[in-house]
Amino acid sequence: MRNVGVVTRGIRIPIIHQGDDLENIVVDSLIEASKTDNITFKDKDIIAVTESILAKSQGNYVSIDDIAQDIQNKFGKDAELGVVFPIFSRNRFSLILKGIAKGAKKVYLQMSYPNDEVGNPIIDPIEIHNKDINVFTTVFNEKEFRKEFGYDKTIHPFTNVDIIEHYKELGDNIEILFANNSKEILNHTKNVLVANIHPRFKDKEIIKKAGAKKIFTLCDILSSSIGGSGYNSDYGLLGSNASNEDVLKLFPRNGEIFVNNVQKKLLDKTGKHIEVMIYGDGAFKDPVAGIWELADPVVSPAYTKGLEGTPSEYKLKYLADSLNLEDHEIKEKIKEKKVSKQESLGTTPRRITDLVGSLADLTSGSGDRGTPVVHIQGYFDNYSDQ
Description:
Layout: E1 7-11, H1 22-36, E2 46-50, H2 51-58, E3 61-63, H3 64-75, E4 80-84, H4 90-103, E5 106-111, H5 125-130, E6 140-141, H6 142-149, H7 163-168, E7 174-178, E8 191-194, H8 200-209, E9 214-217, E10 241-244, E11 247-249, H9 255-270, E12 275-279, E13 302-303, H10 316-322, H11 327-336, H12 352-364, E14 373-377
Parallel strand pairs: 2-12, 4-5, 4-8, 5-7, 8-9
Antiparallel strand pairs: 1-14, 2-14, 3-11, 6-7, 10-11, 12-13
C-alpha cells in the first residue's frame, strides 16, 4: 500500500525571454528533472505553468503610450473620464492609471473605502466604525477624506505606501474621490472605465443603466493590438503586471494551444497522459491583513480537459466518526463514488483548476525560487487507491 498522497514539486527552468520555445523548454526541463531527481511520471499527473513566462515568451507587452492611445480610441480625444474602483496596487494598477491619465483630459478616480475588492486597506475599518460613518452613502473628496482621517492612517500595512499620494503622482489631471456607490461617478462624468476585476460586469451594468454615455471595463482596453503591441482579447489589461517603469506584461494569449501541445509532447516523451494548466494568482486570503491574493481575473486562463469540473469527495471524518465505519468499509465506500450531500459535508465544491492553481502558486511563490513550472502528483488519488 502506498503511504504518500499528493506530492507537489517546483521545477527549475532557464530564464525565459521573448521568442523562446517555451513548450519544449518546459518538456525538456521536466524530463531532465525526472532523471536528476528520480521522478517517475504517471497518468493523471498535473503540470502547472505560471502565466508570466508564457506571456514573456509571447512578447505580450504594452506601453503607457499604447494604453493612452486605446483610451482615446474608446472615449475620444480630450475626454473627461471616470475610473471606478481600482485595486490599490503599484504593480497591478499604477502603470494602467498612468496610461489612462496620459490619454484623457481629466480623470476622476473613484476609490472604494475602507478597502478595495481584494482587501487592500486604504483606511483601518476601525476608524470608520469609531466615526460612525455610513460607507454606503458617505462620499468624500480628497480634501474631506484627509480632514477626516489625516495621513498617518492611510499607510498600507505591508508596503508602507500611501496609495492615495502614489496615485496622485501619476498624473496632474487626476482628481480622487472616495465612494462605494458606483453611480457616484456619474455626478462628475458620463464617460466611465470600470477598473475592478471580479465584480466588473455587475458595476458596468449598474452604471450603464444609471445613465453612462460611454462605458468600458479594463477587459476592453488593449483587447486588440495597438500598432503591433501586445493584447489579450479576453481580458485586456486585467491580469497585467508592471514589467518596467513604462511597460506592462499582459495575461498570455492562446493558452489552450500551449497546454494541449505540452500535453501531447509529454505523452510522446513519457507515454503518460498528463494534464497541463496555466496558472496565475492563487485563490487564497491572508489571515492577518485579510487581503485576497486573486488579483488576476481567473486562477487558470487555460487547461486541458481532464482538469474541468469540481472534485467529488467524501468527508473522511464523517465516514469515520458519524457513520463509525471501519477502514475497509471506508475504502469500499470511496470506491463506489456515490457521494451524498451529507457525506461530502465540509468539502467545498471549488473548481479543480482553482484548487490546483492555488497549490501551484503557493509552491512556486513569487520570489526567487526559480520554479515557474510545478509538477503535481497524486492529486486525483484517494484513500482507497493502492
